[in-house]
Design goal:
alpha+beta; 3-stranded antiparallel β-sheet; globular
Length: about 90
């Protein structure tokens, strides 16, 4: 008998984060790595398994350079629905 990963792990959903210029919680993890790896590590450090991640450019600006200003990119992560409340506490929608 075979079980699919979906049944073993549960239903999944997408969560979204509007990236800022430099006030993202994973910014200290980026260093010489790409953003996808830093976001994945940040979420896994908070016990949230990431199954897929997409970074979408929705605007090229102009934007202010303050840390709280938007970067023009959105980060979408595919997670277990059971982790929805955890990821919302981290600022994702």
């Amino acid at each position: 008998m075979f079980l699919s990963c979906e049944k073993e792990e549960g239903p999944k959903t997408w969560a979204y984060y509007g990236e800022t210029q430099c006030a993202n919680p994973w910014d200290d993890l980026v260093n010489n790595r790409n953003t996808e790896d830093a976001v994945k590590e940040y979420l896994e450090n908070h016990s949230i398994k990431v199954f897929d991640i997409k970074i979408i450019t929705y605007s090229v600006g102009p934007f202010c350079n303050a840390c709280f200003c938007p970067s023009g990119r959105g980060i979408e992560v595919y997670i277990l629905e059971n982790d929805k409340s955890k990821i919302e506490k981290l600022g994702f929608k």
